[in-house]
Amino acid sequence: MNQFARLAIEAGPLAAFFVANSQAGIMTGTAVFMVAITIALAVSWRLERRIPIMPVVGAGFVLLFGGLTLWLQDDLFIKIKPTLVNLLFAIVLFVAHVTRRNVMKRLLGTVLNLSDDGWRTLGIRWAWFFLLLAVLNEVVWRNFATDMWVNFKVFGIMPLTLLFSAFQAPLIMRHQLPDEPAESGPAA
């Protein structure tokens, strides 16, 4: 799948949430988000015959906390979802760092070929970043109106994540290993 399609599948549900919230409020936005993320997972499966773990975890949280939001008619649940997801990712990466397990390599090893030190450094950086996102989400939803929180979720978290990812390029380049040559058959 090309990068544009992947971005559309990953960002599409968030865009649908933003539009629905701006037109009809947080409850409708939450319902649309739940439907859109389910469709995105189905499309991802259809195109690749697999679904990466991060979107599955994210969708699970959207469905759980979105369902609680709608069932209890309380937007608290959809607002704390990003905090809990980011805390979960941070905890997994911090624990992996302490136990010297290479979670980042498992997640991104088909895309990047880094030294073990590079993977460890990348993992701890992402752990701190996820923790920062959790704190920022808490500050915004607790101190600003719901529409401002939605704007932050769409126009704050995504750009911050893209910017943070871009800043990892020097680390990735410094620790990138050469691709292993393909095995050739016997010489003729």
Set out the fold topology.
Layout: H1 3-24, H2 26-48, H3 53-72, H4 76-98, H5 103-108, H6 116-143, H7 146-167, H8 169-175
What does this structure look like?
The protein has 188 residues and is mainly α. It has helices at 3-24, 26-48, 53-72, 76-98, 103-108, 116-143, 146-167, 169-175. Helix 1 (3-24) packs antiparallel against helix 2 (26-48) and helix 4 runs antiparallel to helix 6. The longest helix is centred in the last third of the chain and has 28 residues, at 116-143.
Offer a few descriptive terms.
single chain; 188 residues; mainly alpha; globular; transmembrane helix
Work out the strand percent. Answer: under 5%
- The proportion of residues forming helix, as a percent range, comes to over 70%
Largest sheet: none
Distance between the termini: 37 Å
- Give the structural class: mainly alpha
Q: What's the pLDDT, averaged over the residues?
A: 90
* Global morphology: globular
User: Measured on Cα atoms, how large is the radius of gyration?
Assistant: 19 Å
Note the total helix count.
Answer: 8
Number of strands: 0
Outline the low-pLDDT stretches. Answer: none
Helix-strand sequence: HHHHHHHH
InterPro entries: YciB (IPR006008)
Function: Plays a role in cell envelope biogenesis, maintenance of cell envelope integrity and membrane homeostasis.
Main location: membrane
Membrane topology: Multi-pass membrane protein
Describe the structure concisely for a colleague.
By secondary structure, this protein is mostly helical.
